[in-house]
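Record now logged for everyone:
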Amino acid sequence: MARLTIASAAAVALLVLLAAASAEASPAWADYAGAFDKSLQFFEAQRSGKLPADRTVHWRGDSALTDGFSQGVDLVGGYYDAGDHVKFGFPAAYAVTMLSWGVLEFEKEMVAANSLNRALDAIRWGTNYFIKAHTEPNTLWVQVGDGDSDHLCWERAEDMSTPRTASKIDASRPGSEVAAETAAALAAAAKVFRHYDSMYADLLLMHAKQIFTFADTFRGRYDDSLQCAKKFYPSASGYQDELLWGAAWLYEATGDQDYLDYVARNADAFGGTGWAVREFSWDNKYAGVQVLLSKVLLAGGGDGDYADTLKQFRAKAEFFMCACIQKNGGNNVRTTPGGLLYVADWNNMQYVSSSVFLLTVYADYLAESGDKLKCPDAEVAPAEIVAFARSQVDYVLGKNPLSMSYMVGHGDKFPTHVHHRGASIPSVYAVNDTVGCMEGFDAYYNSKGADPNVLVGALVGGPDGHDGFVDDRCNYQRAEPTLAAAAPMCGVFARLAAQPAAAGNSPGYQPPQDTLHVGGAPLEFVHAVTNSWEYNGVDHYRHTVTAKNTCGHPITYLKLRIEGLTGPIYGVSATQDKEMYGFPSWVTRLDAGEKLTIVYIQEGGPAAKIAVAQYKTG
């Protein structure tokens, strides 16, 4: 054994001290490995069914152990969608597809983070459920739970008292979007498991092929077949993008040229080479399929009959990339003053997450092929694309104007009033007594206390378009986490953890600047009854009211008079004055042209009367 000299010992000590100092100086937003670990915990917290003994989320218990039984099918398992307890098949399948894509691209990075097996478990929990849900070649169960009754209750999954009605698509009630997305999820997962469990991969692929054939043979929108889908996860983009997406993933999983031929033949008619988009989501798959097909081209598969079509897919993929990194001329994705991509007011984080994933994988495709991104404003190297993606992740994890991490449990400052039933009510292991439907609203939903259960790894909906965020459980647009937002980020966290950047290397931000105006005019109200049902012998009506700012200036203060209300109301905050309501706590201003959405439940009788009592502009 070599002797350790005094000089060498001092050098070692110095290195240890420097490493410790570096670790202390590293900000929470740069802890990508920790974020990756936490994101997988969120998927554990969202599990439905019989939970394994080795789970890491100990405040959750078994739930929904008879799902599907009343309809003669076993639908136990799967994932709860968000802060509620409905199992929506469409976004859940998308989440599993994105988890699988992340493993396929960043498998080595996940191994380095010692979390690959947990990622595989998260995928398998979803695919096992999809296999159960595919009971016949042309039958797929796509939802369990009733959104309306579920949203009228605030209770733990372990205490659920709401109907667990299951809904299916079949040859007479087609649903090509959800079927093709489920096929994509199973195909992507089959490729993931090919080297770990080949028999399971074969099973997944068999179901994927059958479900895709079903989706393609019996074409139709699933939200036309199922009213329960239209209310919560309607398909604005139609089903043609999912058919391309499903076929592309089957080609990726099998190498079967028939699937690539399907994509090429339908590329134009289905919009794959025609649509230039600036979002990627559970609904709109065009950017995803364009990137996936670009991979084929960049990997050298662009010869022969498919070359021209693949080049068109790449052109549209690069439109998306350039729009995200703000180099697409006048066609860029909107950003907040702090630099966050901002696509929609409702759960914007899902669009940030999906965009960052596509940016990261596309940058890697370019780097492997020795190519660059050619935008209208500049030619961009792969490293610059990754730097932009990193800036988005850093914002999400706390490098933003509020120094707020939008991942729960990450860093020193994060949301503690998450719009999530299980997080907000004490665990069944802490309070054994059943928490009733309305008791949950009274005792916990409206509580100002922090969540008793920290929903570690959840990505909430995120800040508003001005980088503002109010930590309020009632703020379902911005405080609710979803599977769709969490899934794409998992792979990105692993990728960035394997290639950390020095603190401060990602782009910075400028604080928001508000412009004051004086003027005013009444809001324009549009009132609609969006649903009705009978509960305990009483007719209930769900009313949705949109109030559009037509005064031409930002409204900074608002007081509404709402008369004749007989049930709960969401989207406004009650004041001390009777029948008077103001902005919800998460809204501080309503810009010109923007809309405020108000939803209320009326127990029989006419609609409530809503009028502006007071307002200010500024």
